[in-house]
Design brief:
With 187 residues, the protein is mainly α. It has one domain. Helix 2 packs across helix 6, helix 3 packs across helix 4 and helix 4 packs parallel to helix 6. The mean pLDDT is 83.
């Protein structure tokens, strides 16, 4: 059995190829979210509900594996909270979407701040300015969501998450292309 190991000069190229591919997928997913925002928003709510139910099951299983009375009780309580929340999200997706819209505004604000800080830390590198653009756009989206909440909840999550995904994909694409150019000069 012979295995051919790639040369060390092809590894960065393969990494940038994957980064470019995943960036394009992120851009396409963002476009899909923008094209059907009500369905995108409800899909996010339902997926989040099922993730909560899966987390509840995990806590219940873990509760019986801890073997301590205090641990079992706390894990069962946490699992019950996850289960209640997940079932509520699935049974009342529109009401949950309203709450998730506000949570999304908070999340995007924090993401925008982190992206902006990261852009200054990566400042000497080519393409770091794209992270700054991503951070600023994400902060603007967070403010837009907060200001229009709850009136535009039905379309805001799908549209604004789609825009954020497009800008994130585009900034990652620019970084991957800059890395590919840098690796091309090194090799």
């Amino acid at each position: 059995m012979s295995t051919i190991l790639p040369s060390s000069s092809t590894l960065p190229v393969r990494s940038t190829n994957w980064a470019i591919f995943l960036s394009v997928l992120l851009i396409l997913a963002g476009l899909c979210a923008i094209l059907v925002p009500p369905a995108s928003g409800l899909a996010v709510t339902l997926i989040f509900g099922w993730v909560m139910i899966f987390s509840a099951v995990t806590h219940f299983v873990f509760a019986f594996k801890t073997h301590t009375t205090g641990g079992v009780i706390w894990q069962l309580l946490v699992g019950a909270v996850y289960l209640f929340t997940g079932v509520y999200l699935i049974l009342h997706p529109l009401a949950a979407l309203i709450a998730l819209t506000l949570i999304l505004a908070i999340y995007l604000f924090i993401e925008g701040v982190i992206e902006t800080i990261l852009s200054f830390q990566l400042r000497p590198r080519h393409g770091a300015n794209w992270l700054l653009v991503d951070g600023i756009v994400t902060l603007i989206l967070a403010i837009m969501i907060w200001r229009s909440w709850p009136a535009s909840t039905v379309w805001v999550i799908g549209t604004l998450v789609g825009i954020s995904m497009i800008f994130s994909g585009f900034s990652r694409l620019m970084l991957a292309l800059a890395a590919r150019r840098a690796f091309g000069r090194i090799a």
